[in-house]
């Protein structure tokens, strides 16, 4: 059997936050995880367990206090912000719980943005974005700005934006949290198809149903891994 390629490797990751009053909060306490190319991982656990912090570190949006993070063979430990940003744009697509859409940009412009950073040809990126939005039922909303969309529609735009540049990894924070059950099932089926085609997916979820789409569940409690 051919050994799968490691695409995410976290070793002894700690994350502390310090307040102005010099109070230190230990959020992650020595997390070690290996994710192979093509895995579909669910990170679960109660509120305050460190799930979102772990997701932000995996996504290069935050840096650990201690520990080593190797992403697709690249050791990110001493990277500066520009280097992190370049690697993030090349490797990762994000689905944020809070949408993070550009308020002055249209639906189509929001979706296209990652493919610009990825260097995709203009005609190709526009066609790809329109194709995704049409599949998600938003063909009539391509010119709308985020404040003209419902929460569920904004979530769908965020999902289209995450996958438009065909990233190696998709990180999704409660990807179906703002969707009704039929839409949520549709999105999880889409993630499953992408995963079957080789995309590595890591989701943070409270949903046992969503977690069941993957091949592995990582459970956190109080900054520790209790099941991996």
Structural description of this entry:
The strands form two sheets. A six-stranded mixed β-sheet has the order 6-7-8-3-9-10, sandwiched between helices. It has helices at residues 51-58, 81-91, 107-117, 122-135, 151-163, 181-196, 208-211; strands spanning 6-18, 24-36, 40-44, 66-71, 74-75, 92-95, 169-173, 200-204, 216-221, 224-227. It has a single domain, classed as 3-Layer(aba) Sandwich (Rossmann fold). The model has no long low-confidence stretch (mean pLDDT 92). The chain is α/β, with parallel strands linked by helices and 228 residues long. It starts with 5 loop residues before the first strand and ends with a strand.
Structural key phrases:
single chain, 228 residues, alpha/beta, Rossmann fold, six-stranded mixed beta sheet, four-stranded antiparallel beta sheet, 7 helices, 10 strands, 28% strand, globular
Largest beta-sheet details: 6 strands, mixed
Low-confidence parts lasting 5 or more residues at pLDDT below 50?
A: none
Q: Measure the end-to-end span.
A: 23 Å
Sheet with most strands: strand arrangement: 6-7-8-3-9-10
Q: What is the ordering of alpha helices and beta strands?
A: EEEHEEHEHHHEHEHEE
Beta-strand residue percentage: 25-35%
Which CATH class? Alpha Beta
Overall body shape: globular
Count helical runs.
7
| Broad structural category | alpha/beta
Kindly identify the CATH topology.
Rossmann fold
Radius of gyration: 18 Å
CATH H level, superfamily name: P-loop containing nucleotide triphosphate hydrolases
